[in-house]
């Protein structure tokens, strides 16, 4: 009598052994989103080559907040990777802990990025540099927030026992997206924060 109840509580998803449809869908989504960021960063470097130092703001983007924020986002990726690993082992407590830590670190990233934006001497409307800076970091922030919604959903479903050592594809699919968000930030951080200081 209890077995049908357990079956009803599980989400209708398979294991990663068969490469669930969501896995391929996530790869397609990542490919299109990666193209978007590639175009945005191409625009940034196009302006940079055309105008050189002259188009940059007087006060270059600093590492005071962006540096620690980069470390925070990388640590969140490690936590989500650990949660995914524990999901494959069927260890629900550690899976939930990893997702919770990843979620909290992601929220911390969003808060610090808000302070980073407020600290800028330029706005999205002050110059082409300001417009591109806030467009690129804003699009990334939108992806971080989408990733936080994914992590929060996975954490809730994990706490409810929807996954086990055989049925855990959503955790892996969500982790792939979160790692993509982190990889994009590394490209954004290098482009917007590091390269201006290399002149």
Protein architecture, described:
This protein is an all-alpha fold and 199 residues long. It has one domain (2-51, 60-198): Cytochrome c oxidase, subunit III, four-helix bundle (Four Helix Bundle (Hemerythrin (Met), subunit A)). The chain is 76% helix and 0% strand. GO terms for molecular function: cytochrome-c oxidase activity.
Summarize the structure.
The chain is mainly α and 199 residues long. 76% of the residues lie in helices and 0% in strands. The chain contains six helices and no strands.
Properties at a glance:
199 residues; mainly alpha; Four Helix Bundle (Hemerythrin (Met), subunit A); disordered N terminus; Cyt_c_oxidase-like_su3; transmembrane; transmembrane helix
């Amino acid at each position: 009598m209890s077995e049908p109840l357990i079956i009803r509580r599980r989400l209708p998803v398979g294991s990663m052994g068969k490469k669930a449809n969501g896995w391929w869908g996530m790869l397609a989504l990542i490919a299109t989103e990666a193209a978007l960021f590639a175009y945005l960063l191409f625009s940034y470097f196009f302006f940079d080559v055309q105008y050189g130092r002259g188009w940059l703001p007087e006060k270059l983007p600093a590492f005071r907040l962006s540096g620690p924020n980069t470390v925070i986002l990388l640590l969140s990726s490690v936590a989500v990777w650990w949660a995914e690993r524990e999901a494959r082992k069927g260890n629900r407590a550690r899976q939930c802990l990893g997702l919770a830590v990843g979620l909290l670190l992601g929220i911390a990233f969003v808060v610090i990025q808000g302070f980073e934006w407020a600290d800028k001497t330029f706005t999205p409307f002050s110059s082409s540099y300001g417009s591109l800076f806030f467009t690129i970091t804003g699009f990334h922030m939108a992806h971080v927030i989408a990733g936080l919604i994914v992590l929060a959903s996975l954490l809730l479903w994990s706490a409810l026992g929807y996954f086990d050592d055989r049925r855990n594809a959503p955790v892996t699919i969500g982790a792939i997206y979160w790692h993509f968000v982190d990889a994009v930030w590394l490209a954004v951080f290098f482009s917007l924060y590091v390269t201006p200081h290399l002149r």
